[in-house]
Amino acid sequence: MDTVRTPDSETGAPGGAPAPPPPADTVPPALGRKVRSAARWSLINTLVLRLGNFATGIVLARFALGPAEWGVYGVAQTVLLVLLSANELGVSLAIVRWEGDPRRFAPTVLTLSTLSSGVLYVALFAAAPTVAGLLGSPDATGVLRVMCLCVLIGGVAAVPGQFLTREFAQGKRMVIDGLNFVVSTSVTLLLAFAGWGAMSFAWGAVAGNTVTLIGCCLAVPGTLKYGWDHGHARELLRFGLPLAGASLLALAVVNVDTMLVGATVGDVALGFYVLAFNISGWPVRIISEAARRVTFAGFSRLAESPQALARGFSRALGVVVTGTVPLCVLLAGFAAPAIELIYGSQWTAAAPALPWLMALGLIRIGSELAYDCLIAVGQRRSLFVVQGLWLVALIPVLLVGARLNGTVGASQAHVLVAGGLVVPVFLYALSRGGIGVGWVAKACAWPFLGGAVMAATILGLERLLGDGPLALAATGTTALAAYTLCVLPSRGFLRGTDGGDRPRGDGPRSDGPRGDGPRHGRRRTPAPARPTPQDTR
After folding, report:
1. pTM of the model
2. What letters, b where the CB count within 10 A reaches 16 and e where it falls short, cover 515-536?
3. Three-state DSSP class for 25?
């Protein structure tokens, strides 16, 4: 068992006494209210920003930038995402995880984060021509050097930003993100229409991230203080480095298909596949991104109480899955009409792969929630193993699927590996952390039943009514009504008013999570997490 000390673990909570664990069978009411309020603000924030970015992209694509500029931007954005996965070595979320006063070791976190981000940026600045050439876009050198200034800014902003997450201050975060969007979009549009090309994206991103840094510092004053404690630094690196590695593996999982599918089926088919994959990520980026700004902090507060954590995870999974299933079924069922309406008839060849990729999107949402929960209970090695298995198994299956059935075969390969291997491994890891299969089944049973009824309704009514606009509207409305009726019995569970009964098959536990995390009753590590990549296309 991998039990490690936390910063200041010798002294425990402020005052020298260990913090008592929450009740073993309930989620504290105050915590529940904070989580619900933060989740609402986070969802509103994510929806508004995603819609704004979507509209901005349409304006730029139609009136200001051509495919070449978009290609250069895509290369720079991919490199930026890789660097952001490891820019502060996974240490900043210790601020979210620590039960005591995080200001004791926050100066060390800030120093580590700033130093690591600075080293990464200097290395990229020197290697930018080589990186751009290897990625087939030599013109991206200057854009890389400017856009990746966001790594430096993000390394400094990580500490005040995580204090906002710890306190569930998503209302303040929405204001900060809104200002970021307004500034970055304004700069990007002005420079793009002035003829700056892909560089407009780079300076827009830098301007927006600077606003975020200033906003976070104003919202949480006194957190930008540098300091150093050798013991804290050693422990923080021990926690963060394995999780940064797991995050890089997760990044590879959702990007390796682009290289393999392109090499197998050609550039044209790859374009259709990438479009379908991006559409399948809409629910992931909207629902999962909103949830994960709240869930990790919530799971961390419940980590000392296995029963409360299991119930909290189950409810969070139930809420996320209940909201995601109808979106996935609608996009899968109306794949061709939706693509034609949004992107035009020239893109309808992407439709056959979309239903399979929507199933993958649903699995990704559940796996990302499990990812955060496993970090909260200290299952760091389990995360690294799961992501490694996912990547190793995916590569050969993708190659075979793409060769046999093109983009549809590649999509089926994704679902086969994720559903047949990754989901069982995640379930096993969760059970080692104190969350049995019964809790997962309770969260997913009614939404999955509703999804099946919804899919059958769409298939039946499409054959009966056809695929005209009015017919599709009637079909979608009827399917949503059927789904709503199916999930009504779970409303008490989702609201937390069902009495908190234990699912069958999950017997009483006398100890806490097993495996590579500490047992119940012992101080947990701050186990900083690296969020899995949300939008890497």
Report:
1. 0.64
2. bbbbbbeebbbbbbbbbbbbeb
3. coil
Which distant-in-sequence residues (6+ apart) come within 8 Å of 223 by Cβ?
103, 106, 110, 159, 160, 163, 217
Instruction: Say how far residue 406 (Cα) sits from the centre of its chain.
Output: 28
For 160-169, the pLDDT digits (tens) are 888 887 777 7
Q: Which residues contact 514 (CB under 8 A, 6 or more apart)?
A: 1, 432, 433, 434
Using one digit for the tens of pLDDT, what is the confidence trace for 249-276?
A: 777 777 677 767 766 777 677 778 877 8
Distance CA(102)–CA(97), nearest Å, equals 9
Residue type for position 332: A
List Cβ<8 Å contacts ≥24 apart for 434-437.
Answer: 434/306, 434/307, 434/309, 434/310, 434/377, 434/509, 434/512, 434/513, 434/514, 435/309, 435/310, 435/313, 435/314, 435/373, 436/310, 436/503, 436/505, 436/506, 437/505, 437/506
Residues 6 or more apart in contact with residue 331 via CB below 8 angstroms: 279, 280, 282, 283, 338, 354, 358
Which value, in Å, is the radius of gyration of the alpha carbons in the chain? 23
Question: What's the token pair of residue 5?
Answer: 């000390």
Rounded to an integer, what distance in angstroms lies between the CA atom of residue 133 and that of residue 140?
8
Of 248, 258, 252, the closest CA to residue 410 belongs to: 258
Whole-angstrom Cα distance, residue 383 to residue 246? 7
Q: Distance (Å, rounded) from C-alpha 249 to C-alpha 388?
A: 6
CA distance 383 to 391: 12
Amino acid letter, 416: L
Tokens linked to 388: 């490694």
- Written as one letter, the residue type at 329 is V
For residues 207 and 183, the answer to whether their CB atoms sit within 8 Å is yes
